[in-house]
Amino acid sequence: MVQNFEKKLVLITGASRGIGKSIALALAKDGAHVICAATEARNSGKVVAEIQAAGGKATAVGCLVENPLAVKRMFAEVLDQAGPVDVLINNAGISKPMLTMEMTEENWDQHMNINCKSIFLCSQAAALQMKMNNGGSIINIGSILGRNAFPATLGYCASKAAVDQMTKVMAIEWARYGIRVNCIAPGYIRTELIDQLAVDGKVKLKDLERRTPQRRLGTGDDIANAVRYVASEGAAFMTGETLVVDGGWTAFGYYQT
Ligand code: NDP
Per the domain annotation, does 198 fall within a domain? Predict the structure, then answer.
């Protein structure tokens, strides 16, 4: 698959590690200038250095994506220093499992603010730039848990289900400005997030592999490749859609032996 993102400015939230890092490396390799956002700019430093060492263009920025002022400031600075954003990848997210009877209001708020409100804030700021620039592409990283229920994931599932619907509303409102909005819903991807859940005893990696028809966890590159397609001209007529990338997890409705 050859994709060309030469002269494209791509902002990726949560780009310091995991899925966001894989997306940043892939799009930089395809020629994009990638703005790698994390809670603090220094957290994206290694990713930016890796891209630059390979001859790519990358910039580290810090922004708490749930903070309206911080988001406004980040997009204003990017516009000032690099121009309007062509592609926004809303990837930053958290997962903090808690059984619903024990769940705190803080846990609910964290999931809704970081996984969901952030997408409203960042997409609105990006769309205002894209509208002036005659178009762009926004990709929200949702989850198979936006459609499938799991115990102890009330906040996470609710926030990711909202991402699917937010994708559709933004897509139909902004199509007239040439802005496409889509969602990619990963299955289980081997990142620090999943490793930490395994360490905390919240998931068992072997069980996740066994439950997946392809019998493996996904990689960051599996998601980055989907992003490369959805963000490209090849997907010009695709908007308001959620693309599930999960090794067959969601399709599977039988029992595993
Ligand atoms: P990681 O935990 O590995 O990375 C999370 C990233 O988000 C980091 O870059 C982190 O930055 C950033 N981040 C966290 N909180 C904030 C915040 N408040 N403001 C700004 N940035 C923040 O996660 P993954 O790579 O595994 O997941 C990425 C996305 O993919 C998430 O939305 C997740 O829900 C989704 N997903 C993941 C799956 C998986 O199996 N891994 C499955 C389905 C969906 P910092 O380094 O500064 O903390």
Answer: no
